Amino acid sequence: MNMAESRRDPAEQAPQRQAFEPAYRALHRTGELRRRAGALWAMMGGCRLCPRECGAERLQGDRGFCRAPGTRLVISSYGAHFGEERPLVGLNGSGTIFFSHCSLRCSFCQNWEISISGEGMEQSVEELAGLMLCLQDAGCHNINLVTPTHYSAHILGALDIAAARGLRLPLVYNTCGWERLEILGMLDGVVDIYMPDFKYWDAEMASKYSAGAASYPELTAKAILEMHRQTGPAQYAGGGIMQRGLIIRHLVLPNNVGGSEIIMEWIAQNLPADTYVNIMAQYHPEYKALEYPELSRTITSAEYAAVVEKAKKLGLVNLDIQDRWLL
Prior knowledge:
By secondary structure, this protein is an alpha/beta fold. Helices cover about 35% and strands about 15% of the residues.
């Protein structure tokens, strides 16, 4: 993740921020946002919010594959975050809300204490709305929802409450990329910025390292195309702050476990050349990674440089690159 900051004075950004209206406000005014929140809530009965469609009766208090506690919402932390991509961070930080639990459950998860062990505190939908408004009051440039998939019903409910109280920040959907198209359809007109991972190209790798998620490459590719259809490429306000669009993250894994160069080829063939792509180098063995020899080390500079060079040769021009890893 890039720690650089925009240097533009916040006062210069204010006119653009005031003129911008996030997508969800129109749905709030018509009552459609509340209706969609209710529809997603109903889908927790025989839960099918994520591609596992595990069928857990979350409305009855059962835990799904993600291990989220029924209908209860668990948040690990929230606040202004300065470790995200520069167009999200600006001067005042990205207003991140880290949700606990996860449906993908990667063997090498860097935040496994949150995503798998479920560390965090229970919050109500009303309290989540309050956190969103608190981040806006702190001057954050957006509301950044980290690992949101299994809490999408709670999020839309909170968003409706917060919009009624004056929330006007762009909404960032910070996801592992493994999403159902039906759910993304319900987020159309709600999310301003999609930020999916594209972790693997090979189904066998996805199944091996992410708890049987063999459909990950296929569904993630389809999901990213739908995300781009909804928001288009990155659009910026004053100071280079992103207000709408798509950011794709790809974490380079050792021994080409993720199929990095093929993923770059897919992006170049299916999306505009100016699609924002963050090629990430910060992999280190966490959680159960040491059980797999091919994942038991950090990447080399040569592995990272090869992916960057491939992306450049393919004509991708909006790359977020960690220069210190280049040869």
